[in-house]
């Protein structure tokens, strides 16, 4: 009898697992269809993919700007030979902007990864356990939110050095409080659900409940917040580079602006500052548009009729 009863139970379990799998696939398909119909989100995604392609294929698009350029064509406005013009030493602004795309995306990715690694665990533990854990975690977040970020970034960049990795690290260390707050708020809402109580009732270990059940369902709002952090990181990196605290061995959009300011041509040679500024604006707006699209897709009430 026991052997005869094993097969139906096993078959029933397989059917439940199959039903859950199909349900997840259906949700993913619905999410994909709704997001594709969101013009703002798709505009942001297409622009981001385009900029990522530029960053990846930068060596094929343009040569790396180094040394002195064509000294006979210094401060040339945009023309058929130099699409974005040249700087005060004859280097192509187009080449600088192309390679600056790679730097901005790299620093933004590093900063966001660090913010996620710090903010998500703090938010999860604060929301799940509450009490002293929440007081400590959110108190630490409040302290970071009240700190004068720019002066501290300048000090840390001067102390740690101004390599690209250090710049991303510095920005990430000051970007985690927002994602911690979002994660905590989502954890507080999710831990009251019945499936969490059921998991506790059957003896599921707490770390599995936190990271498998709660975290997996909290990913959507975390993704939305990540797009905001990426945009802020690009602006922060450009600001630090403009102040001369970026990596001097690599090209950044902020470095291009800093060179234009240092040589005194930021106003007269308008192309020197215009094109890197456009790059910053496009990248930041693209991440914001992507975040808006994700948020509207994940929350049906926000979808435009």
UniProtKB/TrEMBL annotation:
InterPro entries: BP-dependent_transpt_permease, MetI-like, MetI-like_sf, OppC_N. One of its GO terms (biological process) is transmembrane transport. Residues 101-291 form the ABC transmembrane type-1 domain. The keyword tRNA-binding does not apply. It is found in: Cell membrane. GO terms for cellular component: plasma membrane. Keywords: Cell membrane, Membrane, Transmembrane, Transmembrane helix, Transport. Pfam families: BPD_transp_1, OppC_N. It is a multi-pass membrane protein. The chain crosses the membrane at residues 31-62, 106-129, 149-174, 214-235, 274-294. Belongs to the binding-protein-dependent transport system permease family. This is ABC transporter permease. It comes from Brevibacillus fluminis.
